[in-house]
C-alpha cells in the first residue's frame, strides 16, 4: 500500500528567525526551535514546513539564498539543524523545507562568477539579454516596489532576468547543469532526513521552459516530472508541496497523472473562502471549490487561512476584491499591497472575533485537503502595519507576557523584527502561556480541533459533496471514504439559524464530533440542526461513535 502520509498531515509553517531565540542575539535560531518541539508536537502538528533558513543577505526574508548547503550562521549550524530533525523525528514529526530555486541571491557565488566572466560556465546559469527586453516592465510580482523584471549589471555588461526583486536573479532551468545542481541540493537535504520540499514560485521556475528558450523543450511541465522522479528515487515517501497560484486550467499540469507533484496550495479555496466570509455566502465558497479541478488519487490540496505573504486576492474580480477589502482591509492605504492583497494576519482582520476566527480554522480543517497553519495562528496573533511590505505579518512568536514576548532575551532594539506590543494583539494579551492556562483559549481549541481532524481521515481522503441547506449562509458538506462519512456544517453568517440538511440516507444518525458550543443532541435520524452565528458543527454519519 502507498504511504500517502500527506493526505492527513497537519502542516505548520515556521520561520526559524522569528520563532524562538535561544542565544539572546535577537534572532530566532535552531536551538530555540528545538526547545519548542514539544509545544509543536503537543499542538498535534505532524509536519513542519521550514521557511528558508539558508545563508542569505536576507533582503526577502531568506528567499534570497546565497548558499544552498548550509544554515545561515545567525540561525545556527548544520549540526543544530540535524539535532533539530532528530528531536522532531523522535516525536513522529516530519519536516519539509523550502526549495527556492527559481532564483538565487545576487550574492550567490554562481551569480558573482557569471557577472565577472562572460566565459564562466556559470554565465549560462542565469538568463541574460544585451538589450533591455521590451516587456521588461510586464509581469512584475511586487508592483509598487519592484520596477522591472530585467536589470542591468555593470560588471556583466548585460541585463539579467528576475521575476521577483532585482537582487533575485532567475536561474536558467533550461541549462541541464542547473537542473543537476538543483537535484544535488534536493539530494543533500533528503539525505539529512527531510520528507520533501515546499517548492517556491513553481510557475516561474518552469516559465522559462515554457517560453521555449530552447526550441526542443516541448512540454515545460516535464521538468516537474524530472524533479519528482529524482525525489521519489531518492526517497519514496518524500513529497513536493508547490506554491503555484495559477489559473484553474493550469493546475492539473502540476499534478499530472499522479506522476508530478503531490500537493498544491489551494489558492482558489483560500481566496473564495475570504470572499465567502465577507459576503456570508455559502454559494461563494462552493463556487471557489467547484473551480478546483479533479486531481489524481495521490494528489492533495493544501488548505490555509493565511501565510507569510500577503493574502493574495488576484483570482477575484476587482469588485470582489473590493468586497473583501471593505471588510478585512478597510484602511486600504495601510493594509492593501501589490494591487492585489491584504498584508494583515487573520485575527485582526476579523477584529479578534473569536467565533469568526474559529469558524475560519474549522473550515480550513474540514475542507477537502490537508491543513497548513502559519505559526502564531494557533494563538490568534496580530500584525504591525508600521513594518514594511509583508513584514507586517511576520512579527516574532508571542510565547509569554515577559519582555519581547518571551521570544528573546536581547534588548528590544536588537530584535530581528519588533514584537507586537501595542493594542489588543500585544503579547501582553495574546501569548502561549496565558492561553495554555485557559481551557477556552484559541490555543486549546486548536489543539482539540486538530485532534478531531486527525480522527477524521475522511476529510483528507474522501470524496467531497456539498449538502443543500436552504440557508444561503450555511455551508454544509460531507466527505465519504471507505464506507464512512463525515459532515461539517458552517454558518458563515452572524445570525443564529436552524437548518435541515438534505441527506439521502435517513437510516443513519449524526454523531456530534466537534462544535462551537455544546448543542442539544440531534434526535433520532432527523437532520435538522441549530447553529449559532458563526457556528460550526462536525459530525460522523453512521452508527459508530469512533
Ligand atoms: C514566494 C514566497 O512565498 C515569497 O515570500 C517570496 O518573496 C517569493 N516567493 C520569492 O521567492
CATH superfamily of the largest domain: Glycosidases
Total domain modules: 3
Specify the biggest β-sheet.
Answer: 8 strands, parallel, barrel
What is the name of the CATH topology of the largest domain? TIM Barrel
Tally of contiguous helical segments: 17
User: Which structural class do the helices and strands define?
Assistant: alpha/beta
Task: Provide the CATH architecture of the largest domain.
Answer: Alpha-Beta Barrel
Question: What is the global morphology?
Answer: globular
Rg from C-alpha positions? 23 Å
Question: Which regions contain 5 or more consecutive residues with pLDDT less than 50?
Answer: none
Fill in the keyword field for this structure.
17 helices, Oligo-1,6-glucosidase, domain 2, binds 1-deoxynojirimycin, about 550 residues, about 30% helix, TIM Barrel, about 20% strand, 3 domains, single chain, Immunoglobulin-like, 5-stranded antiparallel beta sheet, 8-stranded parallel barrel, alpha/beta
Please provide a brief summary of the model.
The protein has 546 residues and is α/β, with parallel strands linked by helices.
Characterization of this structure:
The protein has 3 domains: 9-92 and 247-453, Glycosidases (TIM Barrel, Alpha-Beta Barrel); 109-170, Oligo-1,6-glucosidase, domain 2; 462-542, Sandwich (Immunoglobulin-like). By secondary structure, the protein is an alpha/beta fold. Helix 3 links the parallel strand 2 and strand 3. The chain is built from 17 helices and 23 strands. Helix 5 (176-191) packs parallel to helix 7 (222-234), helix 9 packs across helix 11 (318-328) and helix 14 runs parallel beside helix 16. The chain has helices at 30-35, 37-43, 78-90, 109-116, 176-191, 202-210, 222-234, 251-255, 267-279, 282-291, 318-328, 332-335, 346-349, 354-366, 432-437, 442-454, 457-461, and strands at 11-14, 47-50, 94-99, 103-105, 128-129, 150-153, 158-161, 168-170, 196-199, 239-242, 263-265, 300-304, 311-312, 336-337, 341-342, 370-374, 463-467, 474-481, 484-491, 497-500, 509-515, 528-531, 536-542. It is globular and about 80 Å long. The chain has an 8-stranded parallel β-barrel with strand order 1-2-3-9-10-11-12-16, surrounded by 5 helices. A 5-stranded antiparallel sheet has the order 17-18-19-23-21. It has a 3-stranded antiparallel sheet with strand order 5-7-6, with no helix packed on it. The protein starts with 10 loop residues before the first strand and ends with a strand. The longest helix has 16 residues, at 176-191. Residues 60-61, 63, 100, 164, 200-201, 243, 309 line the site of 1-deoxynojirimycin (NOJ).
Amino acid at each position: 500500500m502507498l504511504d500517502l502520509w500527506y493526505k492527513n498531515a497537519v502542516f505548520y509553517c515556521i520561520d526559524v528567525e522569528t520563532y524562538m531565540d535561544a542565544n539572546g542575539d535577537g534572532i530566532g535560531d535552531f536551538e530555540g526551535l528545538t526547545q519548542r518541539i514539544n509545544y509543536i508536537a503537543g499542538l498535534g502538528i505532524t509536519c513542519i514546513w521550514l521557511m528558508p533558513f539558508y545563508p542569505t543577505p536576507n533582503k526577502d526574508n531568506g528567499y534570497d539564498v546565497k548558499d544552498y548547503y548550509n544554515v545561515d550562521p545567525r540561525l545556527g549550524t548544520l549540526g543544530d539543524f540535524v539535532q533539530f530533525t532528530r528531536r522532531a523525528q523522535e516525536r513522529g514529526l516530519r519536516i519539509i523545507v523550502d526549495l527556492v530555486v527559481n532564483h538565487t541571491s545576487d550574492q550567490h557565488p554562481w551569480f558573482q562568477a557569471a557577472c565577472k566572466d562572460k566565459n564562466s560556465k556559470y554565465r549560462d546559469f542565469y538568463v541574460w539579454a544585451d538589450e533591455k527586453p521590451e516587456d521588461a516592465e510586464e509581469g512584475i510580482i511586487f508592483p509598487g516596489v519592484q520596477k522591472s523584471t530585467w536589470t542591468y549589471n555593470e560588471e556583466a555588461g548585460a541585463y539579467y532576468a528576475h521575476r521577483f526583486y532585482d537582487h533575485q536573479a532567475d536561474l536558467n532551468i533550461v541549462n541541464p547543469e542547473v537542473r543537476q545542481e538543483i537535484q544535488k541540493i534536493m539530494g543533500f537535504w533528503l539525505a539529512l532526513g527531510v520528507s520533501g520540499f515546499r517548492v517556491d514560485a513553481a510557475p516561474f521556475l518552469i516559465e522559462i521552459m515554457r517560453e521555449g528558450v530552447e526550441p526542443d523543450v516541448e512540454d515545460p511541465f516535464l521538468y516537474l516530472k524530472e524533479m519528482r522522479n529524482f525525489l521519489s528515487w531518492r526517497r519514496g515517501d518524500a513529497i513536493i508541496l508547490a506554491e503555484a497560484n495559477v489559473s484553474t486550467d493550469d493546475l492539473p499540469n502540476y499534478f499530472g497523472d499522479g506522476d508530478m507533484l503531490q500537493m498544491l496550495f489551494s489558492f482558489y479555496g483560500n481566496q473564495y473562502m475570504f470572499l465567502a466570509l465577507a459576503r456570508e455566502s455559502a454559494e461563494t465558497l462552493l463556487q471557489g471549490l467547484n473551480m478546483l479541478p479533479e486531481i489524481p488519487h495521490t494528489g492533495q490540496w493544501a488548505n490555509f487561512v493565511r501565510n507569510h505573504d500577503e493574502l493574495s486576492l488576484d483570482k477575484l474580480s476587482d469588485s470582489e476584491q473590493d468586497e473583501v477589502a471593505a471588510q478585512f482591509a478597510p484602511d486600504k492605504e495601510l493594509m492593501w499591497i501589490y494591487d492585489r492583497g491584504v498584508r494583515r494576519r487573520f485575527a485582526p482582520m476579523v477584529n479578534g472575533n473569536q467565533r469568526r476566527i474559529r469558524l475560519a480554522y474549522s473550515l480550513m480543517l474540514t475542507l477537502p485537503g490537508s491543513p497548513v497553519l502559519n505559526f502564531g495562528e494557533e494563538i490568534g496573533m496580530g500584525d504591525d502595519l508600521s513594518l514594511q511590505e509583508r513584514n507586517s505579518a511576520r512579527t516574532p512568536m508571542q510565547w509569554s507576557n515577559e519582555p519581547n514576548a518571551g521570544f528573546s532575551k536581547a534588548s528590544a532594539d536588537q530584535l530581528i523584527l519588533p514584537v507586537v506590543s501595542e493594542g489588543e494583539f500585544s503579547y501582553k494579551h495574546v501569548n502561549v502561556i496565558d492561553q495554555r492556562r485557559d481551557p477556552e483559549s484559541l490555543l486549546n481549541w486548536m489543539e482539540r480541533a486538530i485532534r478531531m481532524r486527525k480522527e477524521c481521515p475522511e476529510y483528507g481522503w474522501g470524496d467531497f459533496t456539498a449538502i443543500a441547506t436552504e440557508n444561503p449562509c450555511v455551508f454544509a458538506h460531507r466527505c465519504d471514504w471507505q464506507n464512512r462519512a463525515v459532515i461539517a456544517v458552517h454558518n458563515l453568517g452572524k445570525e443564529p439559524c436552524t437548518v435541515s440538511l438534505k441527506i439521502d440516507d435517513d437510516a443513519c444518525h449524526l454523531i456530534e464530533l466537534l462544535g462551537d458550543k455544546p448543542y442539544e443532541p440531534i434526535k433520532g435520524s432527523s437532520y435538522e440542526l441549530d447553529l449559532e452565528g458563526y457556528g460550526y458543527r462536525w459530525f460522523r454519519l453512521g452508527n459508530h461513535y469512533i
